[in-house]
Amino acid sequence: MKSRICTWMAGISLFAALAMPALLGAQEPSTTQASRSVRYKITDLGTLGGSFSLAYGINDNGQIDGFSTLPGDTVQHSFVIENGVMTDLGTLGGPNSESFANLNNAIQVAGTAETSISDPNGEDFCAFGTHLVCLGFVWHHGIMKPLEPLGGGNSQAAAINDRGQVAGYAETGTADPNCPAPQVLQFRPTRWTAGHARALPLYPGDTEGAAFWINNEGDTVGASGSCAPYDPRYALPLQPRHALLWRQGVRPIDLGNLGGELENAAFAINDRGQIVGASDLPGDTAQHAFLWQKGVMTDLGTLTGDVVSAACAINNKGQVSGVSIDASGQNLRAFLWQNGVMTDLNSLIPANSPLYLLHGFGINSRGQIVGFALQTSTGDVHAFLATPMPAEDNLASVSPTAEGEIGATSTFALPENARKQLQKWVRIRRFAPAPADPQ
Question: pTM score, two decimals?
Fold first, then answer.
């Protein structure tokens, strides 16, 4: 599932940039602040036989989902990791699937998979480049069940809660003449309960929308706006204007914005009702991560020297994971935000780590974080797991040099093969760089 960040005076063109970690220096939160932070043990989660993998969700039991390429790197499949074993979830008959969605504590995995049926309208709704019909799914105990659309051909699942309710988006049977080709049909934010789809209302005046997360109370967050050229930040042909919260029996609540009129979207909500996402600043030239709680949206800022950020997940302790990116769009870093401070996650791991952490997608109640990282020895991009270490192990596991340079990060020139992987596989979700015209 997913394109890419923008040259800030030109909207979304920064998403076309390539990813490359930069020398950032000791410019992050002060040593005093960071030294109070927990350190993390890093695990390379491997792949399904290909050279690329990405972890998106982690539940409170430590089970993980995401997607990986298969041997030969021609297709990708969703996976779930349990007890250290990565299981291929397969597809709905087509070549590709992926879980750019969380899993719940019952190990029900949400995601999207291709069927073997060509889209009758020639659409490429899931951006795999195959123009096949694709459907959201729920996988459980080895069985992948598709999620029905809203009268159209395609659907995508974005999140599942512990009650088995699914949030995502689905096509209706109505054409929208304002949709740029190849998109033809309208799509609406959708909640599935017991497999049955229900369209969620849009903000008044908007024509399309999507739901990106659902908590255990059934509260759902996402965005609505207008049909537009495909935007990989949202994996949809959508320009979101309103970050929204849907509560049971209540009209959508507009969460507001950070001063911009466009690119406002909510990506996750915890069980305390705290919401995170990304919103444009005044002038709509840059987008920042936000935290919304009790009716107030707070700008979480960026890591020092960066101009763009997005918050992708929040646990019930209020810890936030996401990504921060510089003005060139060529440098991105996973972050952890807690207690009012955003920290480069690379400054909280051993100095000799074989992975450079590029993006933090998911965080569970134990503070474990998953995402994708550069494998520095090979240049491949792999899924990672960052696990908080016991207090007595924190300082012992960090070298004196690293301890004295909290906030600093290493420099890596991203190899060509890693750039190609990011271009091809991380093409359609949540602020990850890729080419301007995904293949």
Answer: 0.87
